[in-house]
Design brief:
Blueprint: E1 22-24, E2 30-34, E3 44-45, E4 52-53, E5 58-61, E6 70-71, E7 76-85, E8 91-99, H1 122-131, H2 144-147, E9 158-163, H3 172-195, E10 199-205, H4 209-219, E11 225-230, H5 239-247, E12 262-266, H6 267-279, E13 285-291, E14 299-304, H7 309-316, E15 322-327, E16 334-335, E17 349-354, H8 355-358, H9 371-375, H10 382-390, H11 394-399, H12 410-413, H13 421-440
Helix pairs in contact: 1-3, 3-4, 3-6, 10-13
Bound molecules: iron/sulfur cluster (2 copies).
One iron/sulfur cluster binds at residues 375-376, 378, 380, 382, 405-411, 421-422, 425.
Length: 441
């Protein structure tokens, strides 16, 4: 079984919702769409209060390279374009639409027919992915088309597809592979055309044997797609670790996967790519696992963007002993500070973490046990980075590789002294990054 060699941990998997088929969450009465639902610059609204919109209509455009178009997930009337608090409580520009009926743009193929034959050319595929506002749905929300704007001197050998879903609890990738595996593979074919790569490799963790067998069976029709079983180990789905596991190649520090002839996409993103390329359907929904040990109900939902988080919470019920609600997985996700906010692209989970689990232990002195060093998949010394970041010694932070930290949290997970390693390393990384940018100006 394939895996990466350095570091990694095995947290309790808790894939509690893995048997729950994807359900469509009802269309809300109103949606609020943030213009920042992706990594990069905000998109620019092109609608105003009073405008009528249809499902799939462009409502905010990408004006810079690293940005993504935004489309209405509903039909109705725009009521305002104003700043609204997001999940963290910060106010961000958003478009609010009152829902009327469910009328789709005529250009979108809304049938359930699976369209296998790809007729678009390489530049047309990239343009369609861009036009449809597709972003990476594995957590980072990086605009997908940017990865396929490949410099002429670079060659792509492998499209790497992340079906690892290594974060505990989250099961939407698993369900997409089981329920829409064929569409995902057509999406992968589109990426092979877009990149000119001769081969795609899909990695699936061993804890999803049904998804592995299903995709392997489907992939037998495609000689250029190979499916591999990966050891269940966190962070198996991290870009560099996945490339290492599936190709043996190592992405040099500070470089992108293209440097070693690879482009990485998440499996649910390939489904969004299928819908964009073959159905002309923009990204207007997110797939979200509702889970947690005390969860009143376990779900994998397809939810229209801009749906109120509190509306979903009142549908599924908040368990009494909930200490925090986390979006994006317990390892790399963030606790939601403001539940009166709205679903955005790539919001892969709402997890109820009970009070006892969400409480942190009392922070003690480092006992030099080295557990954090053994766990780090990037070969860093987290205890040292913590100390250097605490002392605000960013020159030393840089020397000791803080910018290579992928913020996976593996170091903090097993620390017997409960030291908030990742929190402090994140601060140090931000400050060190600022120092480097200022120096290079
Ligand atoms: S795991 Fe915690 S106690 Fe052990 S060396 Fe790292 S910081 Fe220190
Ligand atoms: S959060 Fe950073 S320092 Fe900690 S284990 Fe992950 S990569 Fe290493």
């Amino acid at each position: 079984m394939k895996t990466f060699k350095i570091g990694g941990i095995h947290p309790e998997e808790n894939k509690l919702a893995k048997e729950e088929a994807i359900e469509v969450f009802p269309i809300p009465k109103q949606v609020t769409l943030f213009v920042t639902q992706h990594l990069g610059a905000p998109s620019t609204p092109i609608v105003q209060a009073g405008d009528k919109v249809k499902v799939g209509q462009l409502v905010a455009t990408a004006q810079t390279l690293v940005c993504a178009n935004l489309h209405s997930p509903v039909s109705g009337t725009v009521v305002k374009v104003d700043p609204v608090p997001d999940m963290t409580g910060y106010r961000k520009l958003a478009i609010t639409i009152d829902v009327e009926d469910d009328i789709w743009e005529e250009t979108i193929d809304t049938t359930s027919e699976i369209r296998k034959e790809i007729t678009l050319t390489k530049p047309e595929i990239i343009e369609r992915i861009k036009a449809c506002g597709v972003v990476g749905l594995g957590g980072a929300c990086f605009p997908t088309h940017v990865k396929y704007m490949i410099p002429p001197e670079k060659k792509v050998d492998y499209i790497i597809i992340n079906g690892a879903e290594c974060e505990p609890y989250i099961t939407t990738d698993h369900r997409i592979m089981l329920e829409n595996g064929e569409e995902c593979l057509i999406g992968v074919q589109a990426l092979l055309i877009a990149s000119g790569a001769p081969e795609a490799r899909i990695g699936i963790e061993a804890n999803k044997p049904d998804a592995f067998e299903h995709l392997q069976r489907l992939a037998s029709q495609y000689p250029n797609i190979k499916v591999f079983k990966l050891k269940t180990k966190y962070p198996q789905g991290a870009e560099k670790q996945l490339i290492k596991s599936l190709t043996g190649r190592e992405v040099p520090n500070g470089k992108l996967p293209i440097e070693v002839g690879c482009i990485v996409n998440n499996i649910t993103t390939t489904y969004a790519i299928y819908e964009a390329v073959q159905k002309n359907k923009p990204l207007i929904e997110t797939y979200t696992t509702i889970s947690g040990k005390g969860a009143k109900t376990l779900k994998n939902y397809k939810i229209r963007l801009g749906t109120s988080i509190s509306e979903v919470l009142s549908t599924v019920g908040i368990p009494e002993n909930t200490g925090k609600i986390v979006s994006g997985g317990p390892m790399m996700g963030k606790a939601i500070a403001n539940i009166n906010s709205y679903f955005v692209k790539g919001m892969s989970s709402l997890l109820f973490i009970d009070e006892s689990e969400s409480k942190r232990g009392v922070v003690e002195e480092c006992i030099r046990c080295g557990k954090c060093v053994t766990a780090c998949p990037m070969g860093l010394e987290p205890y040292l980075l913590y100390a250097l970041a605490t002392r605000a010694d960013y020159e030393e932070c840089e020397k000791h590789g803080i910018m290579n930290c992928i913020e996976c949290g593996s170091c903090q997970y097993g620390c017997p002294a409960f030291r908030p390693l990742l929190d402090m390393i994140r601060v140090g990384k931000n400050k060190t990054g600022y120092m480097i940018r200022t120096r290079n100006k």
